[in-house]
Amino acid sequence: MVGYLVTGGVGFIGSNFVRHVLNTCDASVTVLDKLTYAGDRRTLDGLDPGRCSLVVGDIADAALVDELVPRHDVVVHFAAESHNDNSLREPWPFVHTNLVGTYTLLEAVRRHDVRFHHISTDEVYGDLELDDPGKFTAATPYNPSSPYSSTKAGSDLLVRAWVRSFGVRATISNCSNNYGPYQHVEKFIPRQITNVIDGVRPRLYGAGANVRDWIHAEDHSSAVLRIIETGRIGATYLIGADGEKDNKSVVELILTLMDRPADAYDHVTDRAGHDLRYAIDASALRDELGWRPAHPDFESGLADTIAWYRDHEDWWRPQKAATEAKYAATGQ
Ligand code: NAD
Ligand code: TDX
Fold it and tell me: Percentage of the chain with pLDDT > 70?
């Protein structure tokens, strides 16, 4: 049985990965999570307590991390401050968790020689022009735009340095925008779905021409597991499912799927430094590791996600008012 330590395993993608590993592998999982505003322990409800346990703590707590790491075979590092808009309001927690936290984990896996997988984002590459035929590859130069993406870029570079200088056994993955159940209502898709449920018009930043490359969180999880099991040590893999959509089309699709007029949304103040377009070339992952997404149809994945938010109001409702109050302060 493989023992996983999953940081941020109570958050949106981390909890999806925990369920995926427990459903598909002979494995046990310890989740290390600080339970910030973005972490809700109910996300792990229903999992076998004999195979999954939660330690509440900070990844930057060196003593705690040093005690936990040697008791596991693999560390999978999802924990992060993850929201661009928050990073524009208050950058410090991003430096603490994404940089100091990742450093703390790297020192522990170095000391105890434990396999490490680092979860990162396509945002480290900056953005592409809307009409650029190219996509991000592992050779694209780093050019992050926001406090969030710059701290993620820095964390990737720390991992690479610890691989090269200290022989840490690590891999990195940079994934595009995820959607699916358990995503916090601060993020674009759940914010608009829950606004529509509340009878509030969706909010599109600027003209809504910005493009994101959407992937279902379950496909992110299966790709990460494939990389952990068969990826080359020291390699970086880009994860994506050819899901490019502009934000305006996504809002219109949400409204249509929820039986509202497709134009029943408002344009609001644009995000500062708003990246124009992300697009992932995942051919290395497909060709080298044989990975394929199981949810390539965005419209049906979005319909399922809308149904999940309709059925799980008890999960998201407690976060909704405070999240909207933060947006109201910036006119968004
Ligand atoms: P999330 O905000 O939903 O969850 C983050 C989790 O980390 C929360 O449970 C939180 O409590 C925990 N956490 C935060 N600071 C911590 C600390 N100091 N110590 C321990 N736990 C802490 O984030 P998410 O959307 O699930 O993203 C997970 C990872 O995936 C992040 O590394 C993010 O950069 C990356 N990623 C996200 C996307 C996306 O579309 N959401 C895309 C690509 C990569
Ligand atoms: O109300 C909104 N209106 C709007 O137009 C919100 C919240 C967002 N947007 C736009 C901004 C982006 O162009 O929608 C797009 C998606 O926004 P987010 O959900 O905030 O995601 P993004 O900034 O693209 O970053 C996400 O993908 C990469 C995750 O939050 C990151 O953690 C991940 O690294």
Answer: 100
Of the pLDDT bands very low, low, confident and very high (cuts 50, 70, 90), residue 284 is very high
CATH architecture of 2-179+214-239: 3-Layer(aba) Sandwich (3.40)
Quick check: helix, strand or coil at residue 54? strand
Nearest alpha carbon, ligand 2 atom 15? 188
Shortest CA distance to 43 belongs to which of 64, 82, 17?
Answer: 17
From ligand 2's centre to the CA of 143, what distance in Å?
18
148 is catalytic: yes
User: Would you state the structure tokens that stand for residue 154, as one six-digit string?
Assistant: 């820095």
For every residue of 153-198, DSSP letters joined together read HHHHHHHHHHHHHH---EEEEEE--EESTT--TTSHHHHHHHHHHT
| 15-50 pLDDT, tens digit each | 999 999 999 999 999 999 999 999 999 999 999 999
Domain boundaries of the chain, sorted by first residue: 2-179+214-239
At residue 309, the 3 state secondary structure works out as helix
Mean pLDDT of 318-327: 97
Q: Tell me, in angstroms, the distance from the centre of ligand 1 to residue 329's CA.
A: 24
Span from the CA of 140 to the centroid of ligand 2 (angstroms): 21
The pLDDT tens digits of the residues spanning 89-143 come to 999 999 999 999 999 999 999 999 999 999 999 999 999 999 999 999 999 999 9
Distance CA 164, CA 175 (A): 23
Q: Which of 148, 179, 182, 278 is catalytic?
A: 148
Nearest alpha carbon to residue 321 among 198, 183, 193, 182 = 198
Which pLDDT score, from 0 to 100, does residue 29 have?
Answer: 98
127 is catalytic: no
182 is catalytic: no
Q: Which of 123, 127, 218, 324 is catalytic?
A: 123
What DSSP letter does each residue of 221-260 carry, written as one string? HHHHHHHHHHPPTT-EEEE--S-EEEHHHHHHHHHHHTTS
Percentage of residues of the chain with pLDDT beyond 90: 100
